[in-house]
Write a structure and sequence with these properties.
Blueprint (H helix, E strand, L loop, with lengths): L1 E10 L2 E11 L4 E5 L6 H8 L7 E6 L10 H4 E4 L11 H11 L5 H9 L15 H13 L5 E5 L7 H16 L3 E5 L3 H5 L4 E6 L2 E7 H5 L5 H9 L8
Helix pairs in contact: 3-4, 4-5
Length: 237
C-alpha cells in the first residue's frame, strides 16, 4: 500500500506540493492526474526517496522508501526523464540493476521477453525508439517482481498494440493483489485502466475516489478533469 499523508514539498520559496493526502490500495490501479506543473512529479520523487519532504509523509507499506531493505523487490518505478546510459546494451543495463539488488540473472531474460524486447536485448540503447525505451524502463521496474508499481507516463511513445498490452498487464497486475500507482495525461487510457483516481492541481488534491465517483455527473473522465482543474475551452480561451 502507498500512503501519502499531508505531504508538502517546497523548492526555495515555491510550493510544489501542499498538504497532499491519498492512498493507493492493493488490488487496484490508482490513476494520478494533473496538469503540467501540478505537483505529480514532485509527489512521486518524494515517494521514491529522490527528494525529501518539507512536511508530511510518503510511505510504502508503512515505511519510507529509503528504509526498505530490498527496494526493488518492493517497489518497481518508471519515472519520466530517467533513462539508461545510451551506449549500454539493454541487457547490460538490466543486468547491473539485477546484480545490485541480488536478483537472479534469469530474471533479466524473463522481463526482456515479457515487455517484448527479447530480440533487441543486445542492441545499444541509443538505437532504441521512444517506445522501446519505455519498454526497457518497464522491464527495469519489473525486475524484482515487486508488489507495488509506480509508473509515470508509461505509455509514452508506445504504439497502439503496446498501449493495449500495458493496459491489460496493469489490470492483471492489480488483480493479483498488487498495487499500481499510474500517472498519465491520457484521459481515455486512464479511464480504461484505473479503478481509483486522484486529481491534483496547483500542488493540492482537488478530488479523489473511485473512477465512478470522480466522473459522476460528467460525460467522461476528461470532462470531469477539466471541470476540476479549469476548462481550457472555457471563458478566456
Amino acid at each position: 500500500m502507498i500512503e501519502i499523508s499531508q505531504l508538502s514539498k517546497r523548492y526555495g520559496a515555491k510550493a510544489a506540493v501542499e498538504d497532499v493526502s491519498f492512498t493507493a490500495r492493493p488490488g487496484r490501479v490508482t490513476g494520478f492526474l494533473g496538469p503540467n506543473g501540478a505537483g505529480k512529479s514532485s509527489t512521486l520523487r518524494v515517494l521514491l526517496g529522490l527528494d525529501a519532504a518539507s512536511a508530511g509523509t510518503a510511505l510504502v507499506n508503512g515505511m519510507r522508501y529509503r528504509d526498505l531493505r530490498h527496494p526493488l523487490r518492493t517497489v518497481g518505478a518508471l519515472l519520466e526523464g530517467a533513462g539508461p546510459v545510451p551506449e549500454r546494451r539493454g541487457v547490460d543495463h538490466l543486468t547491473w540493476i539485477a546484480q545490485s539488488n541480488r536478483i537472479p540473472p534469469r530474471r533479466v531474460r524473463e522481463v526482456l521477453e515479457l515487455v517484448g524486447l527479447g530480440e533487441a536485448a543486445r542492441r545499444r540503447v541509443r538505437t532504441y525508439s521512444l517506445g522501446m525505451g519505455q519498454r526497457l524502463g518497464l522491464a527495469a521496474a519489473l525486475l524484482g517482481e515487486p508488489e507495488i508499481l509506480v509508473l509515470d507516463e508509461p505509455v509514452n511513445g508506445l504504439d497502439p498494440e503496446g498501449i493495449r498490452w500495458i493496459r491489460r498487464f496493469l489490470r492483471d497486475y492489480a488483480a493479483a493483489g498488487r498495487t499500481v500507482l499510474l500517472s498519465s495525461h491520457l484521459m481515455t487510457e486512464m479511464s480504461g485502466t484505473a479503478d481509483d483516481v486522484v486529481v491534483i492541481n496547483r500542488g493540492r488534491v482537488v478530488t479523489h475516489g473511485s473512477l465512478a465517483q470522480v466522473t459522476a455527473g460528467h460525460r467522461s473522465l476528461e470532462e470531469a478533469f477539466f471541470a476540476l482543474t479549469g476548462d481550457p475551452m472555457g471563458p478566456g480561451w
